[in-house]
Amino acid sequence: MRVLLLGADGYLGSHVAAALRALPGTDVRTAGRRAAHDVPLDLGSTQLPALMADLAALAPDAVVNCAGAVSGSALHLAEVNARGPALLCDAMLAATPGARLVHLGSAGEYGVCESGTSLDEQAALRPVGAYGATKLAGSLTVAGSPLEAVVLRVFNPIGPGAPAGSLPGRLARELHRAGPDGTVQVGDLSAHRDFVDVRDVARAVALAATAAGPLPRVLNIAGGRARPVRDVAEGLAAAAGFRGAIDETAAGSERSAGVSWQQADITAAADALGWRPTVPFGTTLTDLWAAVAAPAAGAPVADGTPAVSSRERVTAR
């Protein structure tokens, strides 16, 4: 089976690449802007004829789209998160109509929800801000396509390689810089999020790409339990042996203020893929801390993401 992976250089994509390559008989090809990729591709700017030609030449059995933008201008978010999936769908329909498309969506597509509730795939979609809105546009395009396609709506991925732009990744770096007795300033950590280990996400993607029959159009991929963001801070502090202070008086993110609770119902993923999260939360935090505190020799910390300055503050995302 040949799988084309878009976004293999990113946090989720790098773990998905490893999971796919571990499957016997799977030929994984990648697409991206670096010369090392099999297919040169910038999904935010490439044109339809070029993408059609690349797909026809490669003839993949499945395409996995991990490409996405979490920050930048509204135009950039729209180009990558909304235009990109639409272009991909049109190109696949023309060049590889029999291939399956697995697209990674986001919990940000749900947006505001009632505290204490669990979100299933039929829940109302009320994204907050340009990120959630553009991710939703892309997911709706994939879910409504005539292709054999599935949107995996990923909640809060966490684990080794977490980028500095995410709360867990940035907090781990702040703890590393502060030392065991320092002070780390954060925003309000009372928001509840549904965290899922990035390796469990990668396993769900591999299952979806190689499933024998048609799949539901949307599946939630999450831990199935809302946790206070404070649990991440305290767990990382424990893993780091941190004895200092975690100060929650810094400004928090607008997105966290607007969405104080998210918890997923993951029943559909269990039924369709036989998937459930398996990595314990404590193990996830320990492995994230270890990756930041003692990265492999010569390897960049947290998947190549540049470190933030000591003046930057951690905010819940």
Automatic annotation (TrEMBL):
InterPro entries: Epimerase_deHydtase, NAD(P)-bd_dom_sf
NAD-dependent epimerase/dehydratase domain sequence ranges: 3-222
SUPFAM superfamilies assigned to the protein according to its UniProt record, in alphabetical order: NAD(P)-binding Rossmann-fold domains
Protein family: Belongs to the NAD(P)-dependent epimerase/dehydratase family.
Name of the featured protein: NAD-dependent epimerase/dehydratase family protein
Source organism of this protein record: Kitasatospora paranensis
Lineage: Bacteria, Bacillati, Actinomycetota, Actinomycetes, Kitasatosporales
